[in-house]
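Q: Hi! First time doing this. I have a protein sequence and I read that you can turn it into a structure. Is that right? Here it is:
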Amino acid sequence: MAELTLRKERNEDAMHSGGSVTYRVHDGDRWVGWVGDGRKWQGHRYGARKWWACWREDGDADARWSTGLRYDSRQAAVDGLTARRAGAVELLPEFAPTRAAGNAPDEVCMHTTGGYEYARWGQVPATPYDEPRDPVPTVYSSARAIEICDDVRLSLAAAELLIVRLRNAIAYERARAGVPLLAIDADCPGCGHPERTLDPVTGVFGCTQCTHTSSERNA
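A: Yes, that's right. Below is the predicted 3D structure, encoded as structure tokens:
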């Protein structure tokens, strides 16, 4: 991946509301998206200047990834786009105190009989079977499947659905227990209300006006 370069966008349709500039981002000779500034309308005036990022390349029908006015600087927006293109799971600032990045497995091994590579997530360090173990189930991943301990084996698609069910179940029980949620300055995609909620433990975004939930700030 070459160093990203910025060129001012001449198409004003790419400008964010309240913004003054948008840049086309290039990786060498290839266009890979935009970054730009904007100011959210506060009802009587525009708010503080923020930056957004979007990953989109020639031939794409839609953006592969985009943010709202999330970043405090242009460089932070470029760094966010770079991290996303590199495959990193970008954590919003609200997650930082409660969640680790977790992008790398704890160990990568070759299956002794199957002859394929798999990754272990959890149980650090690995311990003999009869010694105290990590209370969170260890996960093993490969191109074939996701395994939870030695008890559950799921396809990648089924594992994604399990994540959704677990997040919804945890959010439901936390809500019943009256655990406070964070207020997030973002428009709800379901009803347009200008404020969303965030469960800092599950990472589930909700809304104070409707039942819409998602795992992403702007989705």
